[in-house]
Structure prediction request, 264 residues.
Amino acid sequence: MRYFIGQWVHEKERAGLKAYTARERLLRIYCREEKTGSFDYRHRHADGVYRWVRVSAQMLPDPYSSSIQVFLLFRDIDSEKREEMSIQDRLCTDSLTGVLNRKAFTERAELLLSEPKTGGIHAFVMVDADNFKQVNDRFGHGYGDRVLVKIAEALRSALRADDLVARMGGDEFALLLKNVMNEEVLLAKLTYLKEQIYQRINSDMVVSCSFGAACFPADGETFDDLYFKADVALYTAKEQGCNCARIYENGSQTLLCACETADS
Prediction:
């Protein structure tokens, strides 16, 4: 089994399949006359392509000894598994931008915040498009939708794979940046993000965003606390003008700020 798991099982499911087929677990289940259940994993084929497989175990007493025979049954479930995952993805994503929707972001953020603290900080960031109503009024809602898609793409492409990006509704987005070193690094990241989004449409109008951030656990340990304080920081950033980023601190205005005017 060690050889099989190491050679043919996707690295993300190796520990799970090892636990499922562990000798102690199977013996315990057999003695208690419990069901063995099943385990889904990605199996590497000879061409290097992974396909989803469901493995289940059946156990019978050996007729010639006191040993227990274990039979592993493998079933190809790739098509149904991918369809299931596709449906789940559609339930979790915003239909316009493809990033997480509000419900999925809230659930995943709350799960992350409930995990044991590792000593690092996580940053909860609210993002709001500047003067978005003017863009819609002047160029139409179709153009406004394309602007939102571009903002989402810029945010997603500039972040790490395990960071969270969501559209909370309208022209408002939210980020959860995991394991940020400190607030100075966070501010540098927010500055980079707003530079990636900034784009001049014509001589008197630009696409830009303002950012407000709060840090876990210093500014709160629950989703609601961080949401509120990031929103306070965002409100302060919007007061400073377009294309601005601020980090919540001490219940009011922050010491850390990166703001630019629309013409910068």
